[in-house]
Structures are given as structure tokens and as C-alpha cells.
Amino acid sequence: xxxxxxxxxxxxxxxxxxxxxxxxxxxxxxxxxxxxxxxxxxxxxxxxxxxxxxxxxxxxxxxxxxxxxxxxxxxxxxxxxxxxxxxxxxxxxxxxxxxxxxxxxxxxxxxxxxxxxxxxxxxxxxxxxxxxxxxxxxxxxxxxxxxxxxxxx
Length: 153
What we know:
Strand content: over 45%
Order of helices and strands: HEEEEEHEEEEEH
CATH class: Mainly Beta
Shape: globular
């Protein structure tokens, strides 16, 4: 920063950066993240009951301790040309009074990130922001918006 840059200019440059604790995971070969509070539990991928007529990214239903959980394949949701994930984990996410499962290929880490928030509506409005981890971009997803789109579709 040169001496001609004022404090108010610096403040406006970083106003869109927010520190957030994020759960990092891989889907479709890319690194993504979500607010750590979004994931209630992580379980191994397990067989599901397919729903006839459901879109390809809705993989099916599982019984989780007496609760029926709809399971979504994140990689297929983000890129419909991808093959479904066959080995990975299910993130259990609370959506209002429901639990929804989101399949990811790998759960990578939990980190505090400086997130550049996005006010864009690209990719269905499910992108919350972008951060850098080890010189690689991480897209922070808004699971609530994604799940709302799926359940209301």
C-alpha cells in the first residue's frame, strides 16, 4: 500500500472479506467448502433406495436412525455430465426441520478461511463465496439455497 492510499480506501477493499470456519471437501475433483455449522454429521456412503422419476443428482433415500433422509450427489448437481460418486461420504445437513444428505468424494479438512463473499446469482445462487487454501481456490457453497431449490423443484 502506498502512502497515498487512505484508511477508508483500505477498508473498502477488505469489506467483502469475512473470516469463516469451513468444512472442506472434494466433489467432482474440485475443492469446495461449507460453513462448519451446516454439516451435522459425516457418514460413509451407503446403499440408497432410488426414487423413480427423480433427477439424477437425487440419489435416493436412506434410513438414518429412524429418519428418512433424501440424499443428493453434489458432483452431479454441479455438473450433470459427471458420473455419480461411488466411493465417498455423506454430509448430513439440517434444512429447517429436515435432514438432507449430500454426497462428496472426500472430506478434506476444517479451516478458518478469509472468504470473499459473492453477491452473484451464477450456478443457481448456491455460491456463498471464494477463498484460497494452499494457493488453490475453494468455492464456499450455500447448502440451504441448494437444498431449497431441490426440494421445491
